[in-house]
Structures are given as C-alpha cells and as structure tokens.
Amino acid sequence: MIMEKAKKYWRIKRQLFLIDIILNMLVLYAVLFSRATIILRNMAMGLTDNPFAYIALYLLWLGVFIYIATFGLEYYEGFVLEHKFALSSQPFLRWFKRHLKRGIIGGIISLIIA
Fold first, then answer.
1. Residue 88 sits in which domain range?
2. Which pTM does this prediction carry?
3. In this predicted structure, what is the pLDDT of residue 58?
4. Residue 34: left (phi > 0), alpha (psi -120 to 50), or beta?
C-alpha cells in the first residue's frame, strides 16, 4: 500500500516536471516572439542608460512574468500534491512566504551570475 502510494506520488511529480518544462518553454517562446520582449526592453532602457542595469531590469521583469505565469502549477505541485499525500501540514500562507523567498533568492543569485 505504501509503495503504491509512493509510486503514484513520484509518477505525478515526474509528469508535473515535464509539464513545467513545457510550460516554461511556451512562456519564453511567447515572450520572445511577441511584442512583450520589446516592451520590457524599452521600459528597462527608458529607466537607465547603463547597459548592465537595463539587462538586470529586463531579467527581473522577465522572471516576475514567468513566476506569475507558472504559479498555478507551482501551487499544485508544491502545496496541493504535498497535502494530498499527507507529506505536509504547512498552511498556505507559510508555504507562500517560503515559495516567495525562494523565488527572490533565486532571482538575486541569477542577477549576480548574469
């Protein structure tokens, strides 16, 4: 019984992982081949003349856009699924704060690396 439940959980996690990859590719494709990338670039270039600063602003806004676009899947994978299999008893607000902190720290590290 426990092994069946574990197999089902990991099967769902693998499926969600593949969906996440596809969703991120679709979002990046949509941003790249629409006017959104030009709008983001022009907004960033309008705020500063420093090329490093407008690249950082562009990446920051792109990251926020992707975060918003993929939040539903992240919510299901990180909160709903964990509660469904009784792997977490964390309330939503605490989960959201932790998820948001993780995103902010990841964004800062990405900006430093870029």
1. 2-113
2. 0.81
3. 87
4. beta
